Amino acid sequence: MSKPFLSIERLTQTYPDGKGGTMTVFENASFGIEKGEFVCILGHSGCGKSTIMNILAGLAEPTSGVVKMDGLEVSGPSLDRGVVFQNYSLLPWLSALKNVTFGIKARHPDWSRDKVEAHARDFLSKVGLDGDVVNRKPSQLSGGMRQRVSIARAFANHPKLLLLDEPFGALDALTRGTIQEELLKIWSGTEQTVFMITHDIDEAILLADRILLMTNGPYARVAESVEITIPRPRKRTEIVEHPNYYAIRNHLVQFLGHRSKELAGQQTDADDLRPETVRIDHTQQDSAGHNPDTPPLRAVNH
Ligand SMILES: Nc1ncnc2c1ncn2[C@@H]1O[C@H](COP(=O)(O)OP(=O)(O)O)[C@@H](O)[C@H]1O
Ligand SMILES: [Mg+2]
To answer: Which CATH number characterizes residue 255's domain?
Structure first.
């Protein structure tokens, strides 16, 4: 079998525990992500999600193990990997527009000023920011607008991999809902691969092709990979009607409520811990004779 686009191999992270010993956050975590996939990771606070993401971004080095993208080992940050954090890391002295053009200029030094600006405006408008508002500085924008700028900036650079660390965590529910749908729209028009951390189960079901579930630390594990068997395009108001929605949701709630704790802290001898694939699909049993054509699950072909 060919290697996935992104391959996480035997990743281990330990930190000093402050008492002269070490604390193992996770050990020998291995998983893959295919090109064009949207993968969310869910797990309790402190299990190591941000640590994994920072390693994927090249912002941190694991204690051991490797990450390979397109077969090449990740080391150090790169324009091929775009990152969006919860606390929108916009440059405060630049306008929304300039925050976006900044990265595009770095990626395309040969582009004319007009071309760079048109490209930036196009992406800002995809997240609902048009007109004068793009000339405002981050301090003059609402939290939702700032996060829209961060998303436009990340997508405008066409990174091969987009990493999102609880990007909507600080937003109110209504704003979050709108931006989630904008994110889906912008993503489905690209072939970008997304790895996103969230603590919101419904957000993960709406957005992801697959949800990785992490047990609590120390010795946290990516225990399961749950396929989201709900066809795209998805709308938050419609997916709740899908026969698989609550079955998947209950599975995730049970995992986070019970099994993430039961499995916590278990050191194993395995040197290559891969998540178990979970596929919940009631349509195939329910629809015998009614709907033999299962709609495609992905919006992106690859
Ligand atoms: N630089 C560090 N030094 C020591 N411990 C750290 C450091 N960064 C993270 N940790 C610890 O590692 C664990 C995982 O942290 P993190 O990846 O931020 O978790 P999550 O994003 O899942 O909430 C936590 O117990 C945290 O306290
Ligand atoms: Mg975190």
So the answer is: 3.40.50.300
Q: What is the pLDDT of residues 16-41, one digit of tens each?
A: 999 999 999 999 999 999 999 999 99
Pocket probe mutation, ligand 1, options 13, 14, 15, 41, max atoms within 8 Å of Cβ: 15
Residue whose pair of structure tokens reads 């007009």 in the numeric block: 114
- State how many domains the chain has: 1
* Residue 61, domain member (yes or no): yes
Residue with the smallest CA separation from ligand 1 atom 11 is 46
Kindly state whether residue 181 falls inside one of the protein's structural domains. no
Residue 99 lies in a domain: no
Ligand 1 atom with the shortest distance to the CA of 47: 22
Rounded distance from Cα 183 to ligand 2 centre (Å): 20
14 lines ligand 1 (CB under 6 A): no
CB of 47 closer than 6 angstroms to any ligand 1 atom = yes
What span, in angstroms and rounded, lies between the C-alpha atoms of 164 and 90?
Answer: 14
Q: Report how far ligand 1's centroid is from the alpha carbon of 45 (Å).
A: 9
* Residue to probe by mutation, ligand 1, list 11, 24, 25, most atoms within 8 Å of CB: 25
* Residue 230: inside a domain: yes
Q: Which residues crowd ion ligand 2, with CB under 5 Å?
A: 50
Residue 30 domain boundaries: 1-78+194-302
Q: Classify residue 52 as exposed, middle or buried by CB count within 10 Å of its CB (0-12, 13-18, 19+).
A: buried
Amino acid at residue number 90: L
Beta strands 161-165; 193-197: pairing state? parallel
Task: Please tell me the distance from the alpha carbon of residue 83 to that of residue 57, in angstroms, as a whole number.
Answer: 7
Chain Cα centroid distance, residue 30: 17
pLDDT in tens, 132-158: 999 999 999 999 999 999 999 999 999
Upstream peptide bond of 218 is cis (omega within 30 degrees of 0): yes
pTM of the model: 0.90
